[in-house]
Automatic annotation (TrEMBL):
Spans annotated as Disordered: 33-62
Residues forming coiled coils: none
Entry keywords, A to Z: Hydrolase
GO annotation, biological process: peptidoglycan catabolic process
Cell inner membrane is among the record's keywords: no
Domain MurNAc-LAA: 265-380
Cellular component terms per the entry's GO annotation: outer membrane-bounded periplasmic space
Organism in which the protein naturally occurs: Trujillonella endophytica
Biased composition (Gly residues): 46-55
Hydrolase keyword on record: yes
Protein name: N-acetylmuramoyl-L-alanine amidase
Any one GO molecular-function label of the UniProt entry: N-acetylmuramoyl-L-alanine amidase activity
Domain of life assignment: Bacteria
Name of one Pfam family that matches: Amidase_3
Length: 404
């Protein structure tokens, strides 16, 4: 697929070369059938740019029209891939479609620090290395330094040239060998061991809190209240509580900044954070939409941030237990904000500003303080051994003698 950088989201009713490109990708994934009466050439023309000319002159076939079947196929793809299901093709969906076309063996794979290789073939490589007991990092479909190191280690152990390139010889070796790690996800085993070794305390932990939106991007607005200001206030309260417990805390923005998702994840990676928490409130046209939801990196097919998943459930349940907000559950997503962080990352949607009850609760400074305390408790519980972990909603850090 051609680059989609800077293109506005594709929606039902749109037409042209980019739509033909999307339809061709959906057909290659068996999610969309060729349009009725189409001879199959329109899709090829879209890939070579011909459909774009036809779309502009009006002499195009239906292959370059974003119709209801295309929207349904896009929604299905988004659901399976852990993307926001809106039936539109924005940058993340377009990128995911491009990555989905690659199968392991379609191309040589090697680490490029400037432009990391991305695709489903990389995910397959990572999962295979993890199954064989090699630390290839998270199975996120991005060939980074951790995956290269795992690949080189595998090549050395099996007498191959340890060049960090997955070519025909390496592929043959990978396919011939049975898995070594059984009885659970290897990422879970490795991350759980790391958590136990790190100790049950917050002193020295680096935690990045990411208030959503910012600057001119205010998020949902209700009267004089904006999502951006509300989550910044909440982030500041969480920062204070975590810092008092000994953690080193960083905020990704101030009041006037609105970093991109890439800038937020780069900030967290450069800080070598142990944990990343992105804060949002939600909104919806339905008068019934309210409650707290949490999201962690995961594809829904076994590849996930296991510590992220654990923390997503901990923080949501602590908030629900202490505030009475409705529990909407935790879900795996492949959003770039969760995928590109190199540490456990969670997005928390803390109530609906569009719902009158949630809005009244969130506007109460005392409740926001309670939410901040709930986050602190969840972070502390994340590092506690299982036998010392108290019931949800009951954990309180001991007060120091100087605090009275």
């Amino acid at each position: 697929m051609a680059s989609n950088d800077g293109m506005y989201p594709l929606r039902p009713g749109d037409r042209g070369a980019a739509v033909a490109d999307v339809r061709a990708a959906l057909r290659s994934l068996d999610l969309l059938q060729p349009a009725t009466g189409d001879d199959g050439n329109a899709g090829n023309a879209g890939e070579t740019g011909g459909a774009g000319d036809a779309g502009e002159t009006g002499n195009t076939g239906v292959e370059s029209v974003y119709d209801s079947a295309t929207e349904l196929a896009v929604r299905h793809f988004q659901q399976v891939r852990g993307l926001t299901v809106d039936g539109q093709v924005g940058e993340e969906t377009y990128r995911a479609l491009s990555e989905a076309r690659w199968s392991l063996g379609d191309r040589l794979l090697h680490h490029d620090p400037e432009r990391p290789v991305r695709g489903d073939d990389v995910t397959s490589l990572q999962e295979r290395l993890l199954e064989l007991g090699y630390d290839a990092g998270r199975a996120d479909g991005i060939l980074g330094p951790e995956t290269e190191a795992g690949l080189r280690a595998f090549q050395r152990d099996y007498g191959l040239t340890a060049d960090g390139t997955c070519g025909p010889a390496t592929l043959r070796a990978l396919r011939q060998l049975g898995r070594k790690v059984t009885g659970g996800r290897p990422q879970l085993l490795r991350q759980s061991a790391s958590m136990v070794e790190s100790g049950p305390h917050l002193i020295g932990r680096r935690i990045v809190i990411d208030p959503g939106h910012g600057g001119d991007e205010t998020g949902f607005t209700a009267g004089e209240t904006t999502e951006a200001d509300l989550v910044l206030d909440l982030a500041s309260r969480i920062e204070g509580r975590l810092a008092a417990a000994g953690a080193t805390v960083y905020l990704t923005r101030g009041r006037e900044q609105n970093p991109s998702a890439a800038e937020r994840t780069t900030f967290a990676n450069d800080a070598r954070a142990d944990l990343f928490l992105s804060l949002h409130t939600d909104s919806h046209g339905s008068e019934h939409a309210r409650g707290v939801a949490s999201y962690y990196y995961g594809t829904g097919s076994g590849a996930s941030s296991t510590v992220g998943e654990q923390f997503a459930h901990l923080v949501r349940r602590e908030i629900v237990a202490r505030t009475g907000l409705i529990d909407l559950g935790g879900y795996p997503r492949t959003w770039e904000l969760l995928r590109m962080t190199r540490m456990p990352a969670v997005r928390l949607d803390c109530g609906y500003l569009s719902h009158p009850v949630d809005r009244l609760l969130l506007l109460d400074a005392k409740l926001r303080g309670t939410v901040a305390s709930a986050v602190l408790a969840a972070v502390q519980r994340l590092f506690l051994p299982a036998e010392a972990d108290p019931p949800t909603g009951t954990f309180v850090l001991p007060r120091s003698s100087s605090s009275g």
